[in-house]
Sequence to fold (43 residues):
Amino acid sequence: MSLLADLAQLNWGALVFLAPIPVALRAATLAQEAVRLSARVDI
Fold:
């Protein structure tokens, strides 16, 4: 039982640790798109 509890705790830890990564990647992608659009408008 304690093994399952440890695994669940590790799983939540990994989830909390990894969750910001896709959000950061998405933000970077949106930033690139914004830069691309602004560059297109300038031309």
User: Anything to note?
Assistant: The radius of gyration is 19 Å. The mean pLDDT is 88.
